[in-house]
Amino acid sequence: MATIKYIGRTNDFRGKTLWEIVGNLKNFGVGRIVVRSMFERYPEPSFMKIVKVEALPDEEPTRKVRVTVEKTFRGQKSPNLVQIESVSYKADYRLLARHEEESYCKLVERQEKIFPREIDLPPLLKEFVVRETGKPAPKVPIKLKVGRESRYRVAEGNEKPTVDVTMTIGKPASPSLYANCEL
């Protein structure tokens, strides 16, 4: 019996290309909701409502289409219309059925995560700093890189953080190795 050996890159795409989806719909799917499977890993809904469709010249073996959409990513609606062109050839899109649209597109308010202003140092670094400075419990301030989609920030003043950040090694695979260590 012959064995099959796959050569080349693999991908995690599940679905159809935008060309396949809009080409089979009345009015090219204007007003319909399309979901990119790659974004379904997030708990908040991510979807695109088709506003306008334009075909692009077929220069390569992959067919591309320019689709103007109202994009909602992780429950946050983009203020401007977005054009999808360069990723339209990826077989990673699926069309939502009309009866699923209302329940899937419900926007849920994401909770803001508040981090503490300072955290403990990692255990080994903590030992070095204690020996060098003599301070019993050295801490390092948190600096967060805040992007446009982020819903987290550092606590201000006496505000209580909602996220607990601890520096531990977690549950060891072999606890006997750490029997005489302080964790």
From TrEMBL:
What name has this protein been given in UniProt? Answer: 28S ribosomal protein S34, mitochondrial
Q: What is the lineage of its organism?
A: Eukaryota, Metazoa, Ecdysozoa, Arthropoda, Hexapoda
Q: Which GO terms describe its cellular component?
A: mitochondrion
Domain of life of the native organism: Eukaryota
One Pfam family from the record: MRP-S34
InterPro entries attached here?
Ribosomal_mS34
Species in which this protein is naturally found:
Anopheles atroparvus
- GO molecular-function term, one example from the UniProt record: structural constituent of ribosome
